Design the sequence.
């Protein structure tokens, strides 16, 4: 096989600018100032990478001026700040409201340099002054212990996108402009990042952007050609392919390619201005006519060398325009005297003495160059969303309650019911709340909300759409079959000061594990940054849950997202498993009011037994865990066994098991406990919701067997309770990767979470029973087998299992069958009074 | 705002075929047979969805013939089997080796119908016979308890792609054709699936496909227009955009659009033949010249109605060509007599009596139509990878060992060293082993392997590539900045009978949590399918681990992938944390030899202390957990404290803590334990690697404090050990979402996993010490503060911390400082003898 040769038709990032849009809009003076401002910016970037002392090189550079450990990335800095600076010109010229999203990894020096030059940095960090001492601190803190990171972290003014994990820049940028009609987000997309799946599909976001009610995004695909150690895919295809790709995605790509600074400045200035004017034209056209349409929005492909303005070669090896410029260009500068000189000459080539005055402050003509006040992209309030966040107008959820006259006997579709409330949430908040989902909103029984806000669709319309399509140009529901895009939009929407909810099937929420991790880290870190204001919580509603995925089988069974979330900081994560419809309402209301959390709510979407009227539900959810007296018969407070549950299906099965025990073994005293908020189970020292051991023991006992039916993998409960008193009495049943094509009962039996297994389990754990439980155990086993056989024959669980209802009434000591009120007894009231 | 109207330029999926490739290659007779075969296939699909009895409708359809619960999906069935059948013609005509990947969700009836008609189904499931009784069983089992699912699950002959979670069809298809030069994979891509991020970037796979050494993939984008309840993005853009998109991705798209069956058959036959011939032409051109290049490979855009061949409207609502055809088209058939008649007429419109003989067997002329033997796509051995898998030729890893003369005093780059062995693995297995990674292979210190196999790159080449680019047309390393694509390729490669390894940064492996979950479920389920043979394990090497992500900060710190993996079935998951270089070699060798697992190996890539010579390392890894006598001084077997560790950095810190204890409190007896295989910690009943309580107690004691320094979140250890004797004595330190820009020591201190915190922790836990430890504790605290202050000043940990070495020799009772051999003492030998 022949060896690879350079491809003749390859497009170099070097040379005089080539661009789609022609023109030289910058006057000589503007060009001079732009060039100087860019040199100042580049100098700051190198300063951050290398310098601990002697920030303006007013002494000859010595090794002791350098940081002992050189960290940070040079590769994308020049191209990013180049774009930033050219945006500044247009902000001033057209009075734009603009935001900058820095997508390429580790490109923070570019945006940090701008925040410093614009003065924002000194405003939020008064010790980082605009003088030599401030510059020294500004340089030293970068990628330095106790300092700031090499991404656009929460400490970075103007940032709502960190970019530690790659792929979400465009979806964040769109999230920020939805319902922000005057905002334009300039979104730098790294060509490495562009290879990720999430980024690759997020280009389709324009099919969901309304030119009347939303703002605009200008993606700048930064083709700097290289990742850590590889070329990028998009930099190594033909110009024609690249153009077609973005036209195919629905954009109008404008190319700016080259390395020659003066001509690149002119090309970028002309191109960006063209894009701004095109956006304004489309917006004007739609807004004046009231006719929304999908423009082929402008975007920019900026092909500039990796590590632009670095030496092209060092020691015979390519540096600028190659992956060697990715991180620290001269990593051995401390031990290689020639490289030390090279670095000094390189930094001085930006002529810092011309750019900063003797005090170390930027010279006045450059200080004048960027926009001022909130027009600075580093100071746009949208990037610090709490500044512009308005609390939701929430209808009183109590008015949407399900009427429950008999606990465990009435049934209802909890999710459909909650959708009534959500519909009115949307109606009352038409501009700052959106619902996101990967094509599952209707399936998840939330279709009622379309009455208040349909699904945004800017693609073509077909005749059948009128037949219940629920599509609209301006809607409140955002659906694309990409969990990544939905989550990214929601993150951008929330971080820019609005509110939202993602609804998704439980099994596939793992697709965005990593995104949620990163969002948790962002809001956790924001707590440490004094000038950061709190944003709305990011709410995730999981349904199509594991215990109703019997028919879809093994691939659709994974309740493990909770394990991922539970590993995050207790400052920011909350998990709720409401057992019924009124609890779901109470929990949802709480989540939509909260700030700075990731709230995960797990609730099934099918018909379910209801347990609590609204008042009881509110009290129960407020406590987060409680004894259900109406289901218990340990009136003396000395149970033989504690039956506990967490999750709606799990609760119904645990109750059915409790009923079996009480029916067949009436002398056995059963306490029934339900958990809504799983962090109640952790020690109070480990999570703000955690119970003390005393509180825990008062509910679960420290000496009685506890049969805990859990929605998710059982080990999550064990890891939360491993040091609780009586830990060895806790027997958790949950999902254990045992699935097939099943009925609900059979799936539960496989995992020993069905009523029969639970009841037998309880019998086995009660030493006081001795052999008295044997006959009952045998009977339960027979019932289980009978139910299984019927299910296998008919393909559906027997009616006596499916439509089981709680057979006891309110009386907590008796075993009288019948449908009476399921309200809490006196002890229940006492529980409420002692709750937090 | 104006209401949406149908868009005039919209492209309907209805009408006479429109296609890029013209021609009518089918004779009248071929057309007649193709049509009949398709009708038989469609009939089977409906049968699977609805019928429990009366499979060929030889009695009038009654409700009791139907399944009680109607499940399964009709939407994509027709388009998929249409494609399958047209592939069959070309397999026969051109003697193709072809595989079918069914991407659209829940489209199993299409491929199941083909496997049945081809006879494969009856071969692997002899009870599913080719007669009325067999048909009845075939229908009933579908989406029925105890039966098979509605995806192309492992029970489906010919499938290596389940499609439960969407987005991986193309990457799986490419994985299967790498190093399979004669294989052509027909990959149906759902237009819903096409919206996912992973799918959107996987189109770029052609930039990594070599026309000489690899086979080819024909993606068939199935534009059936709708998802569950929404139009699809790609079906609602202009024809021009669609064409440009795929040309931009580097493909040559051929369109086949319409609903009229005869003309659609001709169009598809002509188009598929054109694609096959084009592929052959490109392959021929490259193979005869020896010059690899990147062809603009052919693909097909098949626009046909959702639910094609169903009634267009039912009760005034659109069905065919709308999302209502997604799942069960007539869901109320059991309660709506009119719909029952409608269903009967619809099924009979396929004329089953013309297609199946009186016994229920397909008529001979149709039986003759598909290919035979392994040419049937349902019987391609590649889809049952173990059939074609060849074990690797592995060089003896012992010969690549790191020379360790003094345990804890010698240091080495474990990963670089392992790369020497990996290089030779690649050299010895040039056609069935590949290394995958998202642009991190060099960064992960595996660059040595390029000497045996470079990075595959079929994009353009630039002059600087010659300067150490390590790119080649035919290589062994696959790098694209998409964890999804890397993982998908690897899964496809492994499932089709080959071997591979994914290397990735630890923090971002969460990106593919869900993919790994799905792969675990696939191989777990395969264990239940008798005819499925075992495939190579899927190996994931995680590096750039949390404890060395101090400088990149919080976003780069997440060791939680292990929690996700540990939730999967114990039959298929294995996790190893080798403490040093020789253990890493031993573990890697074990993993590459194993089958049917997902092996996760966590190892840092920087310079590390080495602890074991090769023989000791092999023994230690074989045991999975062991006491390190050379680090312990509890010669009498009665320690005061057990210091335990799991993970390389964690082990070094725990050893340093042990040394501090032994130095400052020489009377304290410390036992040092190291865990390589974390599943050793689980009870033997819960995982095949688990220890019995007796084995566990022999190592950890049941009454002594255990300070366990863990690599990952501490709760993973707790959830594994919660019911072990002495559980409350186990104090695990690990990562707890406390990060910043740090030095390694400072990051550890934040999480209390540093040597000083661990030693202080141990002192606090030893009741026998009383106040005797106070002075030492104070001294340790002073040392910790001193180290921190030095680090904050210089930006780097003090040399005495960074370059710490184990100060004791081999003698297990003494405290003599000095560098002597670190081999295991006599008790170590005994441990080996009693290990499994």
Sequence:
């Amino acid at each position: 096989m022949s060896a690879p040769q350079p491809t003749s038709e390859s497009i170099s990032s070097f040379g005089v600018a080539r661009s789609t849009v022609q023109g030289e809009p910058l006057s000589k003076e503007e060009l001079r100032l732009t060039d100087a401002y860019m040199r100042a910016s580049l100098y700051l970037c190198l300063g951050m990478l290398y310098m601990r002392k002697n920030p303006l090189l007013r002494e000859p550079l010595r090794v002791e001026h350098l940081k002992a450990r050189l960290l940070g990335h040079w590769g994308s800095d020049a191209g990013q700040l180049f774009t930033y600076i050219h945006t500044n010109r247009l902000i001033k010229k057209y009075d734009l409201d603009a935001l900058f999203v820095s997508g390429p990894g580790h490109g923070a020096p570019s945006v940090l340099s701008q925040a410093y030059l614009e003065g924002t940095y000194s405003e939020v960090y008064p010790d980082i002054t605009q003088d030599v001492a401030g510059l020294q601190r500004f340089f030293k803190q970068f990628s330095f212990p106790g300092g700031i990171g090499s991404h656009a972290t929460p400490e970075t003014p103007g940032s709502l996108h960190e970019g530690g994990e790659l792929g979400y820049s465009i979806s964040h940028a769109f999230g920020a402009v939805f319902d922000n009609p005057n905002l334009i987000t300039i979104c730098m997309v790294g060509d490495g990042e562009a290879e990720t799946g999430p980024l690759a599909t997020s280009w389709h976001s324009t099919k969901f952007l309304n030119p009347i009610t939303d703002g605009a995004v200008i993606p700048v695909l930064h083709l700097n050609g290289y990742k850590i150690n590889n070329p990028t895919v998009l930099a190594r295809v033909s110009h024609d392919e690249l153009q077609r790709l973005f036209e195919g995605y629905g954009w109008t790509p404008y190319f700016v390619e080259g390395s020659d600074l003066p001509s690149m400045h002119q090309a970028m200035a002309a191109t960006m201005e063209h894009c701004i004017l095109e956006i304004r034209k489309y917006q004007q056209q739609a807004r004046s006519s009231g006719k929304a349409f999908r423009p082929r929005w402008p975007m920019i492909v900026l092909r500039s060398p990796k590590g632009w303005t670095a030496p092209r070669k060092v020691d015979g090896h390519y540096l600028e325009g190659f992956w060697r410029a990715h991180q620290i260009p001269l990593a051995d500068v401390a031990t290689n005297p020639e490289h030390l000189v090279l670095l000094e000459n390189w930094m001085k080539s930006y002529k810092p003495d011309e750019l900063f005055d003797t005090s170390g402050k930027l010279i006045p003509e450059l200080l004048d160059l960027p926009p001022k006040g909130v027009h600075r992209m580093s100071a746009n309030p949208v990037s610090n969303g709490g500044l512009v966040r308005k609390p939701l107008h929430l209808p009183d959820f109590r008015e949407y309650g399900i009427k429950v006259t008999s606990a465990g006997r009435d049934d209802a579709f909890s999710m459909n019911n909650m959708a009534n409330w959500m519909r009115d949430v949307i109606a009352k908040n038409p501009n700052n709340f959106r619902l996101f989902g990967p094509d599952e909103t209707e399936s998840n029984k939330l279709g009622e909300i379309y009455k208040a806000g349909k699904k945004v669709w800017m693609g073509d319309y077909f005749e059948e759409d009128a037949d219940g399509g629920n599509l609209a140009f301006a809607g409140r529901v955002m659906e694309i079959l990409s969990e990544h895009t939905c989550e990214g939009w929601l993150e951008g929407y929330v971080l820019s000061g609005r509110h939202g909810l993602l609804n998704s099937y439980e099994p596939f929420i793992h697709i965005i594990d990593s995104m949620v991790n990163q969002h948790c880290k962002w809001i956790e870190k924001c707590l440490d940054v004094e000038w950061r204001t709190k944003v709305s919580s990011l709410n995730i509603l999981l349904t199509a849950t594991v215990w109703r995925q019997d028919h879809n089988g093994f691939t659709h069974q994974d309740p493990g997202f909770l394990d991922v979330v539970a590993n995050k900081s207790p400052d920011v994560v909350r998990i709720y498993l409401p057992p019924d419809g009124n609890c779901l309402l109470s929990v949802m209301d709480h989540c939509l009011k909260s700030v700075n959390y990731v709230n995960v709510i797990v609730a099934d979407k099918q018909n379910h037994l209801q347990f609590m009227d609204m008042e009881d539900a509110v009290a129960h959810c407020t406590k987060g865990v409680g004894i259900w007296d109406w289901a218990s018969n340990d009136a003396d407070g000395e149970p033989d066994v504690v039956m506990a549950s967490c999750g709606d299906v799990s609760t119904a099965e645990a109750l059915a098991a409790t009923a079996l025990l009480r029916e067949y073994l009436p002398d056995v005293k059963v306490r029934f406990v339900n958990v809504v908020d799983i962090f109640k189970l952790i020690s109070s020292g480990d999570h703000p919701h955690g119970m003390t051991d005393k509180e825990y023991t008062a509910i679960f006992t420290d000496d009685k067997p506890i049969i805990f039916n859990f929605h998710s993998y059982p080990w999550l409960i064990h890891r939360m309770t491993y040091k609780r008193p009586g830990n060895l009495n806790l027997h958790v049943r949950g999902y254990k990767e045992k699935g097939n094509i099943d009925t609900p009962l059979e799936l539960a039996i496989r995992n020993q979470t069905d009523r029969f297994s639970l009841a037998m389990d309880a019998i086995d754990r009660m030493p006081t029973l001795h052999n008295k439980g044997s006959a009952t155990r045998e009977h339960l086993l027979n019932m289980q087998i009978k139910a299984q056989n019927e299910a296998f024959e008919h393909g559906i669980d027997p009616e006596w299992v499916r439509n089981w209802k709680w057979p006891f009434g309110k009386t907590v000591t008796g075993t009288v069958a019948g449908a009476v009120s399921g309200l809490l007894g006196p002890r229940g009231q006492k529980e409420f009074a002692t709750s937090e």
Q: What stands out?
A: Residues 648 and 690 of chain B are 21 Å apart (CA to CA). Chain B has a mean pLDDT of 94. The longest strand of chain B covers residues 183-190.
